[in-house]
């Protein structure tokens, strides 16, 4: 038996990330500056990004293996995961001092698990990769070791443990019914009690991870309690891994139970959007407001499963999945950018009142943050509008008019609390106290996020470029 180097070629990006993680741990012996570790990590993300692009376009050949599918769908999400990790690499420097090498090594190892999940179609491999990501993020969440971050990390850990138990039970019942953990073969699926139990357990388990109602409360406390760059990562990269795995599990693994999938997710989507948007209206803690907004965004994302369940195999289902993929890209910058904007505040506890007078202190940051909020609300000329437009269009195409109306009404509700924040920025006077840290390293991520969000709106063909990738699900 001869060894073909191409069998390893596909794993080069993961090997680069893993090797960079161990290199950073080794360099930690010399107590180097945190910026050196962050630069090594960013270099690894960039190299891995380029390697995946080369593999996607056939420049770098590779051999496939059992249980994996190296298709455009996986490549797309792999690139998104690298972007979400790279996005917080330098902003995290703001609050990382001691043992920063551990933080960046963990970030690299977590991203490696994300890439494994992107290409796996075996439920056991998916579960292990997902748990690797979860365990790493538990540690990252409590990394700063303040009372507030440790409390948030503990809540996140125990909630994640409960979610893991539900997922294990769901996978067990799935195997009992189908006799396989593979999603690549032709599954013989019927509405047996085992499969219905598996569906219920997996919806609950992944619902915790995605922070959908009523499994969302951990996210409110965790996003508020963790450091801003960690909040950004947990609300984007970590959540998108759960969404991608759910696409594989519920679109492929439960293709014979489409009507049940539709009912489950239609009810949960409506409850999640409505509860989170209404709760955010009365929220004065700015980070908690953004956390409730993140829960609402998860409600929009799971509309994809309602469409694929109601109209499986149709153009509407393909549009829904493509819209979810586009939404994932925009989501990294509008939600991640919103949490990174919190770095401009000197205090850890930020109220809506604290943002008063920002427009006078820094018009550029105020404008950029406003663009991010408008994108979250789905206002035209932002990428958030484009993503919601195609998502709601898929609902109409699939015949789910009532669900489209509910989603649009919820978007309208969200405008009120986003505009409230903007009103405080522009029309309320500050107290005179210097509450802002407007150093360039805090402002750049906000500017960058706003620019990307606007640029994505004008790339109209992006959705139709993503559409052919849907077949890889």
Structure commentary:
With 473 residues, the protein is an all-alpha fold. It folds into two domains: 7-256; 281-473, no CATH class. The protein is built from 20 helices and no strands. The chain has helices at 6-9, 12-27, 34-56, 72-89, 100-119, 123-141, 147-178, 193-210, 217-225, 228-253, 258-281, 286-301, 303-310, 315-341, 358-361, 363-377, 383-397, 401-427, 440-458, 462-466. It is globular, with a radius of gyration of 21 Å. 56% of the residues are buried.
What are the SSEs and their pairings?
Layout: H1 6-9, H2 12-27, H3 34-56, H4 72-89, H5 100-119, H6 123-141, H7 147-178, H8 193-210, H9 217-225, H10 228-253, H11 258-281, H12 286-301, H13 303-310, H14 315-341, H15 358-361, H16 363-377, H17 383-397, H18 401-427, H19 440-458, H20 462-466
Helix pairs in contact: 2-3, 2-5, 3-4, 3-5, 4-5, 4-10, 4-14, 5-6, 6-7, 6-10, 7-8, 7-9, 8-10, 9-10, 9-12, 10-14, 11-12, 11-13, 11-18, 12-14, 12-18, 13-14, 14-16, 14-17, 14-19, 16-18, 16-19, 17-18, 17-19
């Amino acid at each position: 038996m001869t060894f073909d180097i191409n069998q390893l070629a596909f794993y080069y990006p993961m090997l680069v990330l893993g090797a960079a993680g161990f290199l950073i741990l080794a360099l930690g012996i010399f107590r180097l500056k945190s910026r050196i570790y962050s630069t090594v990590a960013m270099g690894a993300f960039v190299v891995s990004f380029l390697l995946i692009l080369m593999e996607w376009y056939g420049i770098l050949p590779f051999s496939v293996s059992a249980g994996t599918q190296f298709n455009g769908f996986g490549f797309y999400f792999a690139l998104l995961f690298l972007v979400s990790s790279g996005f917080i690499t330098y902003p995290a420097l703001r609050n990382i001092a001691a043992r920063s090498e551990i933080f960046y090594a963990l970030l690299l190892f977590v991203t490696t698990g994300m890439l494994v999940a992107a290409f796996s179609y075996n439920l056991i491999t998916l579960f292990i990769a997902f748990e690797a990501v979860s365990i790493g993020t538990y540690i990252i969440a409590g990394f700063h070791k303040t009372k507030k971050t440790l409390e948030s990390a503990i809540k996140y850990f125990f909630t994640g443990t409960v979610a893991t138990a539900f997922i294990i039970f769901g996978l067990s019942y799935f195997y009992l019914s189908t006799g396989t953990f593979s999603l690549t073969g032709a599954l013989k699926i019927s509405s047996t009690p085992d499969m219905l139990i598996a569906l219920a357990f997996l919806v609950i388990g992944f619902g915790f991870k995605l922070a959908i109602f009523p499994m969302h409360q951990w996210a409110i406390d965790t996003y508020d309690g963790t450091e801003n760059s960690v909040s950004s990562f947990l609300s984007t990269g970590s959540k998108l891994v759960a969404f991608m795995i759910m696409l594989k599990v519920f679109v492929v693994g439960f293709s014979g139970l489409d009507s049940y999938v539709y009912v489950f997710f239609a009810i949960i989507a409506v409850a999640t959007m409505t509860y989170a948007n209404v709760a955010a209206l009365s929220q004065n803690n700015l980070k908690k407001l953004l956390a409730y907004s993140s829960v609402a965004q998860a409600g929009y994302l799971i509309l994809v499963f309602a469409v694929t369940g109601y109209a499986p195999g149709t153009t509407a289902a393909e549009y829904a999945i493509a819209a979810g993929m586009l939404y994932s890209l925009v989501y990294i910058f509008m939600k991640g950018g919103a949490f990174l904007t919190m770095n401009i505040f000197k205090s850890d506890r930020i109220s809506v009142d604290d943002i008063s007078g920002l427009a006078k202190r820094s018009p550029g940051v105020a404008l950029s943050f406003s663009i991010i909020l408008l994108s979250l609300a789905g206002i035209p000329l932002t990428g958030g509008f484009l993503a919601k437009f195609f998502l709601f269009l898929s609902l109409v195409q699939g015949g789910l008019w009532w669900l489209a109306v509910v989603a649009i009404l919820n978007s309208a509700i969200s405008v009120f609390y986003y505009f409230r924040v903007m009103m405080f920025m522009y029309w309320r006077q500050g107290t005179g106290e210097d509450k802002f840290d407007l150093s360039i390293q805090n402002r750049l991520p906000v500017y960058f996020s706003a620019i990307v969000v606007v640029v994505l709106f004008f790339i109209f063909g992006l959705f139709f470029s993503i559409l052919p990738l849907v077949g890889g699900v």
